[in-house]
């Protein structure tokens, strides 16, 4: 094996974790890109009026950030990705924002049509609590 060749992906391999800070400015940019201008993502007054502790990040933004662990891993083609939203990511009105920490682990590898398909179990945490339920990605491995 050459120095530049990565070892073959195996069950139990951990993907490099990431921490991403989500700020109110990020929410404004995401709202513009997604056309999701729901005021729970932009107005503290409105968010509190519907029982939320403060403005929350868009669920799909949270999910997209979590998916970056898989795409940054770079070991194959992302085939599909699913998750449930279990807890909101509350974004404070400051310069630091909310820290979302995401990690992944190869949970299984199957053979499909001659290709190795890895099932990646992800974890996404904000404020020490899980924010995505059962986030799983499937990747056609390139090794």
UniProtKB/TrEMBL annotation:
Residues 17-95 form the MaoC-like domain. GO terms for biological process: fatty acid biosynthetic process. Pfam families: MaoC_dehydratas (PF01575). InterPro entries: Fatty_acid_synthase, HotDog_dom_sf, MaoC-like_dom. GO terms for molecular function: fatty acid synthase activity. It comes from the Bacteria. One of its GO terms (cellular component) is fatty acid synthase complex. Belongs to the enoyl-CoA hydratase/isomerase family. This is MaoC family dehydratase. It comes from Actinokineospora fastidiosa. The lineage of its organism: Bacteria, Bacillati, Actinomycetota, Actinomycetes, Pseudonocardiales.
């Amino acid at each position: 094996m050459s120095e530049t060749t990565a070892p073959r992906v195996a069950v139990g391999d951990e993907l490099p974790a990431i921490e991403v800070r989500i700020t109110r400015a990020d929410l404004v940019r995401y709202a513009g890109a997604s056309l999701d201008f729901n005021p729970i993502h932009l107005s503290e007054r409105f968010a509190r009026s519907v029982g939320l502790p403060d403005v929350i990040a868009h669920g799909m933004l949270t999910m997209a950030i979590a998916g970056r662990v898989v795409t940054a891993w770079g070991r194959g083609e992302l085939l599909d990705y699913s998750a449930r939203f279990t807890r909101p990511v509350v974004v404070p009105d400051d310069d630091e924002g909310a820290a979302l920490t995401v990690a992944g682990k190869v949970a299984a590898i199957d053979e499909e049509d001659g290709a190795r398909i890895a099932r990646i179990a992800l974890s996404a945490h904000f404020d020490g609590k899980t924010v995505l339920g059962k986030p799983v990605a499937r990747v056609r491995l390139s090794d």
